[in-house]
Amino acid sequence: MDANGESAGLDNLEVVENEWIPLADGGRLAARIWRPKDAHAHPVPAILEYIPYRKRDLTRTRDSINHPWLAARGYACVRVDLRGSGESDGVLADQYREQELNDGVQAINWLAQQQWCDGNVGMMGISWGGFNALQIAARRPSALKAIISACSTDDLYADNMHYMGGCLLTDNLSESTTMFSHTSCPPDPELVGERWREMWLERLNGSGPWLETWLRHQWRDDYWREGSVCEDYSAIQCPVMAVGGWADGYTNAIFRLLEHLKVPRQGLIGPWGHKYPHQGIPGPAIGFLQEALRWWDHWLKEKQTGIMEEPMLRAWMQDSIPPTTYYHHRPGRWVGESQWPSPRITEKVFRFGPGAELREPAGQPDNMETASEASIQSPLNVGLFAGKWASYSAAPDLPHDQREEDGGALVYESGPLAEDLEILGAPTVTLTLASNQPVAMVAVRLSDVAPDGKATRVTYGLLNLNHRKGDDRPELLIPGEFFETNVPLNHIAQVFPAGHRLRISISTSYWALAWPPPRPVNLTLRTQGASLKLPSRPPQDTDAQIVFEDPAGAAPIAVTLIEPPHHNWLVHRDLAEDLSTLEVIKDNGCFRIEEIDLEVTSRTWDWYTFRDDDFSSPQGENRTERSFRRGNWSVHTRTHTILRADAETFYIQAELDAWEGDKRIFSRNWDLALPRNFV
Prior knowledge:
Residues 293-556 form the Xaa-Pro dipeptidyl-peptidase C-terminal domain. With 679 residues, the protein is mainly β.
């Protein structure tokens, strides 16, 4: 029965709990398959989701909603764990490397050759699965006819959770710890038999903090180019649907894909965080599986579904709303553009002026006689309420009222707007700056300021000023020397109502979203030539024609809650010690999956601390715990990572421990030092 109450023909499905996909080197990938019972007699297209997050248990609930729903409509849906994860053989040593992509191509070829498959294959995934859908599409396996890529990127350096504008994101640390935990979990003995312990020990010995690898590549070198499809968009020859949300960190890539791909393509962007749109928060969630079905029916079954008659870009135009750290719903409306870049969008310019004002130019730019200068050296607490780079919407992880952050920033503000202003695209701020240090960064925020003074962050951008000439050619700044640079802000669709003000806030650090520079930086801003460029979009009547069905999906599996989940963000301030800590709790609790009689516990904690204005004091610390239990079989893993730095060096301390029952069967420590390179 569908989640929306409609019959979906799920009784006519065959579910294969585990199927082995053989690989050329003798290894095997583990797959779970949902397909029509008569698929052997009447073959159907296959839809592949290829990720490392454990089909057997950790994604089982999500999979039970998505894959049966599509399979009941005439598809074979196949969830495959990457090599080194779940029940698949081997060790997973990094993201998006040659082995992963080559295995994925082999999996597609295997699917196309099965008796129950008609030879046509699609790929669909969110985050990691969206990444490798693009990357495998660029390898052009002949059976791959189309993809849906959600919350992903075309550029592994520019828009990923490692670096932003050349600045080191703290999500780099949290992602490393997350994968540290995933790669050290064992397979399920019910599927692999007595090999489970041997496979687990192989993973434990081959696991480690990927943070080390990512910190060895602090600018855009060949490591990041490999797997970045932006290096050659023409390599992708199949249709692409790119999906994302404004609260997520990956949305910029959708606009680049729409602009540079030459294949049939669509973009879909809602107000959501890092979630599939039918589960999207902030809402409104939409009938995404219905849209996916229209896409697959068109490209895999040659049906006329009307999907390609939709605008190339469908996006949620967000209305103004007071600031808070969690929204259940973002008011707004759907808008559409038939091409991207859109000729309908024009540039609206505001110039920085004396008196900290943003003004629309009435004539020529300011000359040297009317220009002014201002300096800023931000305290380390600017960014404490910035939220998460990629919101998961499971906790209060969105930016709070910007007035507290603005106390440590240069602020330029417009007068009250005479009429509504709608933007769609990427705002750009042009600045003329001089730094007193050779290594520096700048954070720029665009806020919507209501008449009552509340300031909601609309979008922002970070720039490592040593990367001002390109992420692949960093160079030191000359202290005291002025230079002009552009700071692109994240793409957004937003309405600024009449009577509200625009605010640009400029700071020299943004902790704990990004790692601060090695030493305190004083930036001097010269207003001459400084400007804010906004992508102004006029409303159009055809926007009202964009509609979506309500969310649908198969009923989720039965899960018994043993310990409730707990998610929160907490700010602790020890005034006696002048120590501040941002604590992030992602505790998924303990639950039992009834259909496989498996008890699962998954918990993660993050702490980001700093003391006073000491730029050598910031520290990130992450800890994860996972356990799996069935009868007398019980395993438990714990990972722990600390990252800190002085002016010249990053220091990593990491621990991995594993228990079988009450006996600790593995323990390893890492103590690493890596030089800072223009960060």
